[in-house]
Amino acid sequence: MRICIAQTAPIKGDILKNIENHKKLINLSIQNDSDIIVFPELSLTGYEPELAKELATTKDDKRFDGFQKISDLNKIIIGIGLPTKNENGICISMVLFQPNKSRMTYSKEYLHPGEEDYFVSGTNLNPITFKNNKLAFAICYETSIPEHSEKAFKNGANIYIASVLNSTNGVDKDINRISDIAKKYKMVAVMSNLVGESGNYDCAGKSSVWNNKGKLIEQLDGNNEGILIFDTDTEKIIKTQLKKQPTTR
After folding, report:
1. Which of 14, 59, 128, 205 could form a disulfide linkage to 195, CB 3.0–4.6 angstroms apart?
2. How many Cβ atoms sit within 10 Å of the Cβ of residue 118?
3. Where do the CN hydrolase domain residues begin and end (predicted)?
4. In terms of Cα–Cα distance, which of 111, 25, 108, 97 is closest to 61?
C-alpha cells in the first residue's frame, strides 16, 4: 500500500483557494500511484480558532464534490482537515473521501488545552480497512493520549496516521512520541504537518514516515510544501518538495 502525506501552507480562511492547492498535491500523489493522501490539521482553513464558527461546514458541502470525484476515478482515499459543525458545536475534523463510498467524518476527541474555548470534543472513527490494511487516524494532540493509540492497536490497526499542526517549538517532542507509538504497537506511522504561519504558530513542517519498528524512514523539510509517499510493502519512498508559496493573512 502506498501512503501519501501532504505538507501544506494554508491560506488563512480561504477554503476555495486551499481546495485548489490540495488538488495539485492530490494529482501529484495520483501520478505516483498513491492509495491514500492525508492533509494536516485544519488544512482547508488554516488553524484559525477565531474563524472556526464562521468557516465550519459539513462533509456534504458541495464545494468538496471534486474530492469525491477524484477519489472515485482514481481509487484513492483523501483526508482533508476542516472545522465541522454538529448539534453540539464545532469540531476539529478530518473528512474522508473513499472510492464509491459515503463520506466519513473523523472528529478530534481529545482537545488541546485552550481549544475548548472554540471547539467541542468530537467522535473518532474506528480504523478503516483498505487493501488488507487497517488505518487508524489521529488529530494532533490525540497522539499524546496513550489511550488513543492503544485503542487503535486493540482495534487491529497496522497503520497510524496523524494529521497535525506542530510548531517549531513542539515538533521534535511529537516526532519522538509518534516514533514510540510505531515501535510499541508495531504499526507503520505517518505525520502530516503544516508549514508557514497559521493561528499565530510558526508551523514546523517535518512531515514524517516511520516503519513498524519506529525507525524514521524519511522527512520533509521545515519550509516547503510537498508530499511524501511510503510503500508499506517495499519501504520505498517518493519525496517531492515544492517551492514555498507565500501565505496570505
Report:
1. 205
2. 17
3. 1-234
4. 97
37 bridge partner residues: 4, 78
Query: Taking the domain 2-241, which CATH number applies?
Result: 3.60.110.10
Helix (H) or strand (E) holding 16: helix 15-31
Nearest 5 degrees, angle CA 6-CA 129-CA 41? 30
The answer to whether the beta carbons of residues 201 and 117 sit under 8 Å apart is no
Q: Cell 459543525 sits at which residue?
A: 85
Torsion-angle region of residue 196: left (phi > 0), alpha (psi -120 to 50) or beta? left
pLDDT of the residue at 82: 98
187, 157 Cβ separation under 8 angstroms: yes
**Residue with C-alpha cell 519512498?**
237
- What is the pLDDT, as a whole number, of residue 199? 87
Please state, as a whole number, how many other Cβ atoms lie within 10 Å of the Cβ of residue 187. Answer: 24
Query: 10-residue block means of pLDDT along the chain (249 residues)?
Result: 97 97 98 98 97 97 98 98 97 98 98 96 96 97 97 98 95 96 98 94 96 97 97 95 57
- For the chain, domain boundaries: 2-241
Angle at 196 between CA 226 and CA 107, to 5 degrees: 80
The terminus-to-terminus CA distance of the chain in angstroms comes to 37
Grid cell of 65 as nine digits? 464534490
